Amino acid sequence: MEPASLDSAKTHDGGAPAARSGSLENPELVENVPGHVIPILQREFDDFDTESTRFLKGALQEDDFIKFRLKQGVYGQRQPDVQMIRVKLPMGGVTPDQLDSFADVIDKYVPLRKGHITTRQNIQMHHIPLPDVAKLMREIAEVGLSSREGCGNTMRNVTGDPRAGVLDGELFDITPYAGAYVRYFVRHPTTQAMPRKVKTAFTATDEDNAITRIHDMAFVPRVRDGVRGVEIRVGGGTSIMPRLAPTLYEFVELDNGDYLKVTEACMRIFDRQDFLRVNRARARIKVLVDKVGIDEFRTMVEEELEGDWVAERDFSLEQILFEHDEQANAPSPRETYATPNGDSREFNHFVQSNVMAQRQEGFSTVEVNVRRGDLTPEELHGLAAIMREYTGGYARTTVQQNLVLRWVRDEAIYELWQRLGELGLGDAGAGEITDVVSCPGTDSCKLGITSSMGLNAAVQERLVQMEISDELTRRIHVKMSGCPNGCSQHHIANIGFYGASFKVGEHTVPAYIPHVGGAFEGGDARFGHRLKARLPAKRVPEAVERWVRFYESERTDGEEFNTFVERVGTQEFEAQVKDLTMPMEFSLENMNQFVDWSRNAPFEVQRGEGECAV
User: Fold this and answer.
1) 13-34 tens-digit pLDDT
2) What distance, in Å, lies between the first and last C-alpha atoms of the chain?
């Protein structure tokens, strides 16, 4: 739509101000400043004020307003009259000033006083009254944060390896090219109302920490005859039709913009598939690729690249490449640092699980273990201060809902760990079995069936109580989603769950469907086996413990969990929990089974119409 308000701000003396990023005079100024990847358009906030006011006054139909606000990253919740704002962090990049800004707006506008790191490397804020939304967006825009196209049938947040640029084995740093991709496609006319959303990932190495195989569009660095390029993968996804993305092209050049050209061709083809718009639950690009096959889809792309539209585009990277030298701003050494004194077992575990050496000598990344991805204003302010002192200002969120601090001097790690401990964020075990991942579930999502966040807390507590020291067991990953859609990526967990329910007479029990044997590390993406079991929610922690102890007691020497799953078979896993799947009678003694985790009322399925497909 056209801007609803075209008046620009005036200076104090009444004259016109100098052009700034997002002004009508200079609408999309690109700045190669960390965290400032998406150009800000101030007029969009005026539009949001205008349209939300029209909606609240009854002058704008709800369906029209929903489509409008989704493009601005504003999503409806199951609770009436409040919104979720999804702020995009391309490649997970975030600055200290941005963390401070998150803290400030959460303190001011978010009743639950927390921000949530998602499995798409965004930060979400929930329960925000509609009249406050534009105020919040304006305030975070001052530090370069944008929610533009965080929702809707658009090009969603572009994710990546949080250690891109500092990893051993990298052919080159993919970050600048991912940034150019974001800038090229944000507000692009072709990607504003596609049949469904498009999720993109840029990985850094063949270890594929970005999990490219489960994405709509994905890019893996390649070099051919000294020329930088990428392998392009298309058509992956989870949800109700999980597919691993096949390779569209083994090599497409980067510096000449060909990767943007090929992607736009894919999007143009996708956008024209009207058959996909009939059933939005099966409207992702993976459905098209699955239907016609990757070879036919490649033919379609090559025919599309012959179109007149190609000559009308500028695919050059000169104005949009995200170039920034982090190492030039890395912290200088100090004369002294704090060192371990006394029992250092806890610190040693932290180093083993949370710290990874960078390829730049003398520096490491430190992964902050963020429970359930939730951060309070105090924690956000504290992390911002730590970033300024120990990282040169560089950090990236992860798809495991954590935060990776970059450019930490090796001699500062103990001192940094102490500082994290003061914030309650010094836990070891990042990426280990106790680092449980979940979506928000019924805490806020309209499509949620169960309280996946509540189950996360219960399972995590049980795993901590188990005091697991076995190295192979610690490598197990546990994820749960509140519905079959899979926002926690439960399909690729070693042990995964999605929310369901079953009836006992006239009463309903919250439940979960388990999967075992999924994988996403080391370039090996696999979907787990769905078990023929339906576990009451309150019995899931016991099921997890049984499966873990079953694995530890019956595996062969050095046998990893997924290998064990394939050897013993899913029926053995089902047998371990058969008694837990048995229905119970509704009685005073069993009342707890009919109440979901972190709830205090009898469970009932309350699903609204999700907005992902609007």
Assistant:
1) 333 333 334 433 445 567 787 7
2) 17
Task: Tell me what the pLDDT averaged over the chain comes to.
Answer: 93
Structure tokens that stand for 323 in this block: 């170039």
Rounded to 10 degrees, what is the CA torsion of 165, 35, 255, 221? 40
pLDDT at 609 over 70: no
Per-residue CA distances from 549 to 467, 553, 557, 578 (Å): 12, 6, 15, 16
Radius of gyration from C-alpha coordinates of the chain:
24
The residues pairing with 599 across neighbouring beta strands, listed in sequence order, are none
Task: Specify whether the CB–CB gap between 257 and 289 falls below 8 A.
Answer: no
User: Count H helices, E strands: the chain?
Assistant: 16, 21
Tokens of 85: 């704002």
Q: How many CB atoms are closer than 10 A to CB 334? A: 11
| Helix or strand (DSSP H, E) at 70 | helix 62-71
Sign of CA dihedral 102, 104, 109, 110: positive
Question: What distance in Å separates the CA atoms of residue 380 and residue 114, rounded to the nearest whole number?
Answer: 9
Is residue 196 within 8 A of residue 190, CB to CB? The reply is: no
CA dist 492 and 329 (Å) reads: 37
The beta strands (E) that lie in 373-516 are given as 374-375, 395-397, 403-409, 437-438, 478-481, 495-504, 507-516
Return the residue matching tokens 């969120």: 397
- Residues 391, 366: Cα–Cα separation, whole Å: 10
Specify the amino acid at residue 284: R
- Site of tokens 């601090």: 405
Is 139 within 8 Å of 106 (Cβ atoms)?
Answer: no
Residue 31: what pLDDT? 75
**Amino acid code (one letter) for 75:** Y
Written as one letter, the residue type at 520 is F
Nearest to 120 by CA among 148, 91, 149: 91
Q: What is the DSSP letter of 519?
A: B
Angle, CA 185 vertex, CA 145 and CA 240 arms, to 5°: 90
